[in-house]
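Help needed: design a sequence for this.
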């Protein structure tokens, strides 16, 4: 059932559902972070409609592509560094802290679930994380605060301190393999929950499009909270259509 004009009734139904459930798995997309100042890259007028994404094979093959990728990332540094968790992140952090949610699955790369107090191991990141870099050869983590001054001094990012491999933000680029362990955990969480709540995702990009239906086919209730309609709305039990920040506004009953 879709609630848009009368959200109050929908919120009451959602609160009752949470109350009657043992395991709630939240799945989040860009819409939960726009209130925090992180732009939705894919939205019309978003960064990706103006700057074509740099595919993974180009990043590997070309120093020029790598320079462009780092330049774009550091241009976003102010926004990422200033972003703080919003009402949606805080609500989910409470669900995890109380044991209602075993973990949160996210398409976001902004680290805001961890910043809201959710332990790193309870955040399943299907598109990686842009707030640090990893070595593409050995996987070692490197901090952007170390890379940036070296990039600005030399016009290229430094190599891995351990093995000399290429460093890249820990995100999943176009053409890069999906993170197997995160995908496995996301599928397992979707199959084993009582309620699957998709928040702020347009549910069109893989794997987002599939997870709500996996949950539903495994017997879970499906709740969708998003500003725009999604292709999964028809399959959902409750659709709350509106701004995430005002729907999950630190309500005591959610
Ligand atoms: Zn390395």
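Sure. Designed sequence:
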């Amino acid at each position: 059932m879709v609630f848009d004009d009368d959200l109050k009734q929908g919120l009451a139904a959602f609160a009752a559902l949470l109350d009657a459930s043992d395991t709630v798995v939240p799945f989040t997309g860009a819409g939960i972070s726009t209130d925090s100042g992180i732009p939705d890259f894919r939205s019309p007028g978003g960064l990706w409609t103006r700057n074509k994404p740099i595919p993974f094979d180009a990043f590997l093959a070309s120093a020029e592509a790598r320079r462009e990728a780092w330049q774009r990332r550091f241009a976003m540094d102010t926004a990422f560094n200033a972003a703080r968790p919003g009402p949606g992140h805080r609500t989910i952090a409470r669900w995890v802290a109380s044991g209602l949610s075993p973990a949160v699955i996210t398409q976001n790369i902004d680290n805001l679930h961890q910043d809201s107090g959710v332990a790193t191991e309870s955040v399943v990141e299907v598109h990686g994380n842009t707030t640090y870099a990893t070595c593409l050869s050995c996987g070692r983590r490197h901090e952007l605060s170390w890379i940036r001054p070296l990039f600005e001094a030399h016009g290229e990012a430094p190599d891995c301190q351990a093995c000399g491999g290429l460093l890249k933000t820990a995100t999943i680029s176009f053409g890069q393999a999906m993170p197997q362990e995160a995908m496995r955990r996301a599928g397992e969480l979707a199959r084993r929950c009582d309620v699957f709540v998709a928040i702020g995702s347009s549910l069109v990009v893989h794997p987002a499009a599939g997870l709500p239906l996996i949950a539903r086919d495994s017997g879970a209730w499906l709740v969708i909270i998003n500003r725009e309609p999604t292709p999964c709305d028809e399959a959902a039990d409750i659709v709350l259509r509106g701004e995430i920040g005002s729907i999950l506004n630190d309500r005591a009953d959610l």
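The chain has eleven helices and ten strands.
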